[in-house]
Amino acid sequence: MNRNEKIDPAIGDTCRVPLLALFGGAALWLVVGLAIELAASLTFHNPSMFADHSWLAYGRLQAAANDAVLYGFCIPAALGVILWVFARLSESELVLPLVPVLAANIWHLGVLVGLVAIFIGDTTGFQWLEFPRGASVLLFSAYMLIAISAMATFGARRERKLQPAHWFLLAALVWFPWIYTTANIFLVAWPVRGVAQAVIDWWFTNNLIFVWFALVGLGLAFYFLPKFAGRPLHNPDLALFGFVTFILFSTWCGIPQGAPVPAWLPAASTFASVLMLIPIFSLLTVFARTVTGPSLTGTKPQCKGGPFCYIKFGTTAFILATLMLLPLGCPHFGSWAGITWYVQAQSSLQILGFFTIVICGAIYELMPSVMGMEWPFPKFVRFQHWAFMAGAVLLVLMLAIGGLAQGMNDYNFQSALPFLRFSTLGLFLLLLGSLMFAANIFVMTIKWNLALAKGFIAIVRPPVKLQEVKS
Amino acid sequence: MTSSCRIFLVSFIALGLSWGGFVLAPMEQLGTQKQTDVLNSSQTYPLQRTGDATLGLQVYRRYGCAACHTTQLQQGGVSCDVVVTGMGKNPTAVSNLLSSLSLKNLDKDDAQSASDQITGAGGKTEIHIIPTGGDVARGWGARRSVSEDFLWDYPVQLGSLRMGPDLANVGGRLGSFSWQLLHLYAPQAAAKDSAMPPFRFMFLVQKIGATPSPDALQLPAGFGPPSGFEVVPSNAARNLAAYLLSLHADVPLHDAPFTMAAAAPAPTAQAKK
């Protein structure tokens, strides 16, 4: 972002504590989630490694790792960035700043409860919705509190015209409560009968990991990219067309081909997958033309491993992840590849390659102006970019190739094993990157606290001791 | 177009449509499903699982078994064989006809027309339905999984990844209780190339008392506990094994018909893969 741009200091003042609360916990969960994922991956090297510890069973590690990254990092960090973007676009301070602070603590408590529940076996058994109902209630109430603050900030905006980022982020705000309550009510609280459970879980998963992520990630990309590139968003009408067609079609993807359900369900997904080409190419055009077009400021924007790189790479990963997803809608390919590691590769690209990188880039961009200080380890920003890029590419390629190899060889595990072992390296790089991210966030928090304490001491203790002058 | 009301309206319409399609409609169609009849039989399907198997489903959930195993079989389609069961009153005409007709691997219409011709000439026929596709050829099951298979399960865990083999019919192909327990304790002892993690924490290693426990596992050399000790399954392990044995998808249903006689028993060596 242009450092000379004038930012209302009230935005930073009101956002500081809520964002630290959301991002601090999120950074911790990202490290925890990737570490658990790495531990799960070690099972490929030695299957009997954790054979004597029930809480380290592979199924538990896998579920805990997925949920720690998804619920622990992706959603709260994204909500924090949304709060700041809404305040910036409204040119107003954050309304009700204490509410998101409270909500951040409730949210991270909910994630802790959910992860402990998975480790002791109290999971719901539904993929991507493993947290038991106690944790879900905490997450849902925290989300609603943050949404209230975000909507109040949106309502207080001075510029009434909506920006493209607004469309995506507003849609995302209503999306999550709807899908999360639906899934929890019909799967956990009052479960429906038979495979209808599986259908609802697929609907929820698709709407969260594909649609919600895309809405938030693209909304943020369409906010930040024009600033980095120094030119307005290319063709907002096309972006609007892409947005509307995206939410109309993407929600119908996600039913696996060959699942034991009535044939019209996977057929609807096939149809939607074909139609998805329309929004994807519209959005790709907007993205590519915005990034490559000539800058209005005259200087060619450089990314140099900074936030611009993060968001460019992340958006590219989104396009690639979608192009990996759409073939799963083909009846033949989808029915055999849809039950291999190819699916995990796709969701890893979506979560780690696209969403996590976009969010990290946004955080790296906005925190210095919010905190009024530079990052403590500026080099880590560039290192993390390379670690995440290499890690995500390695992980996704290995899982995808391993999955396809296994699927073509009678689902024989041995044909996937070498690739799965290599994928551990990708996870290691990702973990390394997340540690750098956490180090930056935590040291920044500590520095800020120290500065606060210094200021406080300075007030309590006057710098010059007053002495009565005796003559 | 771009006021906030309109954005909300479009979002509600888009999400509402798919909610109607993928939540409400399946609840109406599948959530009210009832037991069905086994084809050509008076049995109903599915029956409720036994008590220990129902508990075993929860063990399956607690340890996240669905992270590596699916319980959904697929099939490519069906092929039909026409089997002549009687030559009738005019055997010459029927055998002349048979020499000009192909009777194996037909689609439904061809099988019906071949059958009609033979019946017209006076012979008697049966049409056998044979499911095709990788899962059936591998011997993992006789037919594809259908929604009725999961009617009584909560949670339904179809799984999304076949790191290990599919389990939809594991009770049909590996139907020994002691083999299942052995495989849980030491997978490599039961299936040589297995990459499954052992679930040793579900078993107790205890000193052999005055009389050895009747439940103790019979372990092959190299997998056993130190001498003087025995390995006894916990309730969780027994329930899980009971659940695995209760997984059967081997009766013909209206949604997934096949002819029982034509489904040759899968060779055990292949099934154990």
In short:
Chain A is mainly α and 471 residues long.
Would you mind describing this structure in some detail?
The complex is a heterodimer of chains A (471) and B (273). Chain A has 471 residues and is mainly α. Helices cover 75% and strands 0% of the residues of chain A. The N and C termini of chain A lie far apart (60 Å). The mean pLDDT of chain A is 94. With 273 residues, chain B is an alpha+beta fold. Chain B has helices spanning 4-29, 51-62, 91-100, 108-120, 134-137, 170-173, 177-185, 187-190, 235-245, 268-271, and strands at residues 36-37, 44-45, 77-86, 124-132, 203-207, 229-233. In chain B, strands 1-2 form a two-stranded antiparallel sheet. In chain B, strands 3-4 form a two-stranded antiparallel sheet. Chain B starts with a helix and ends with a helix. The model of chain B is unreliable at 262-273 (pLDDT under 50). The interface between A and B is large, with 82 and 72 residues.
Compute the CA-based radius of gyration of chain B.
25 Å
Structural class of chain B: alpha+beta
Tertiary shape of chain B: flat
Poorly predicted sequence stretches spanning 5 or more consecutive residues of chain B: 262-273
Structural class of chain A: mainly alpha
Strand tally of chain B is: 6
Helix content of chain B: 25-40%
Distance between the termini of chain B: 59 Å
Rg of chain A, Å, rounded: 23 Å
